[in-house]
Design brief:
Elements: E1 2-3, E2 6-10, E3 13-14, E4 22-24, E5 27-29, H1 31-43, E6 48-55, E7 61-67, E8 70-71, H2 72-78, E9 83-84, H3 90-101, H4 114-120, H5 131-135, E10 145-147
Parallel strand pairs: 2-7
Antiparallel strand pairs: 1-2, 3-9, 4-5, 6-7, 6-10, 7-8
């Protein structure tokens, strides 16, 4: 997601890339596009509160984001449109397992882990390009902030 010139990733998950497809019932399905639409729809016109903490392997900011009372990362896991990270909460891991067990979202067909898909499909705009932006964030202010007008990038 992008807030102004600041790019963040949701902590605890890795979602399919926007261009990623998944085989389902013998047909290529735009699972990455659908994951992006699910995330965008959950944010549309709503107040978003994000707390940053830590950085990903590209030195981009990681954040926990809440809309109303809902943790956006956990919502994406429960809908079956994200992979869980090892450092995710037990509640998030349970939501992930439930989505897999009931074949929700990406689990309704075959899916390649997003990190593996990225390795096989390098993009001209790599996350490494965003290191300068992410490191220029005000790292002293790690308190929750409300955001409107966020942009979701797959």
């Amino acid at each position: 997601m992008t807030f102004g010139d600041q790019r963040i990733r949701l902590a605890g998950i890795d979602a399919p890339e926007k261009q990623q497809t998944c085989p389902r019932n013998g047909i290529e399905w735009a699972c990455g596009q659908e994951a992006t639409e699910i995330l965008t729809g959950s944010l549309d016109g709503k107040q978003l509160r994000c707390t940053t903490g830590g950085h990903d392997r590209y030195d981009g900011a990681l954040a926990t984001c809440i809309v109303g009372q809902a943790d956006i990362a956990r919502m994406m896991l429960a809908a079956g449109f994200a992979f869980v990270s090892e450092d995710a909460s037990e509640e998030s891991k349970a939501a992930y397992q439930q989505a897999m067990d009931t074949k929700l979202g990406i689990w309704d067909g075959e899916v390649q882990i997003a990190a593996e898909w990225r390795s096989a499909h390098p993009q001209p705009t790599s996350p490494v390009r965003n290191i300068a932006r992410a490191t220029s964030m005000n790292t002293a202010a790690r308190k929750p902030r409300s955001h409107g007008g966020s942009t979701v990038n797959g």
